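If you are new to this repository, start here. Below is one unmodified record pulled from the training split, so you can see the exact layout before writing a loader.
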Amino acid sequence: MKIETAKKIRTVGIFLFTLYLILLIYFLFFAESYGRVSVQREYRYNLELFKEIQRFWDYREELGWSAVYNLWGNIVAFMPFGCILPVIWKKTRGFFRIFFLTFGFSLAVETIQLISKVGIFDVDDLVLNTLGGIIGYFVFAVCNYIRRRVYG
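And here is the target side for that same chain:
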């Protein structure tokens, strides 16, 4: 790939990643439609692994689409993190690097939610968010492999 083309792709990637982070922060901390209107009075957290995932599964008929939105939303919301980051920062290329960066970023988000009492600190969200970052990385890896095969 030409250096000029690589710079353009990186620039677009930086713009998209910045836009992604802004939107993610907005939806996680400020969006009224997600119950972020006011700060809660108490700390809310779930430290039991798979508790909320199991609850959404058990009550999926009563909850309807909100169960699907919650579970898949956490995965989909972090896919761009794993997909775009390796494009703009070559040092993040690698499964374990993306795994730890996605987990760390998710842990930071969950901790901020706990401290600020906006949302709930949930270990299940850590699992789902990290899974989303890993899936995003695999999308990047497949696209990068195809690009290398087609364009050399």
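Two things worth knowing about this chain: The beta strands are 45-46, 121-122. Helices lie at 3-29, 51-58, 60-63, 65-88, 95-116, 123-151.
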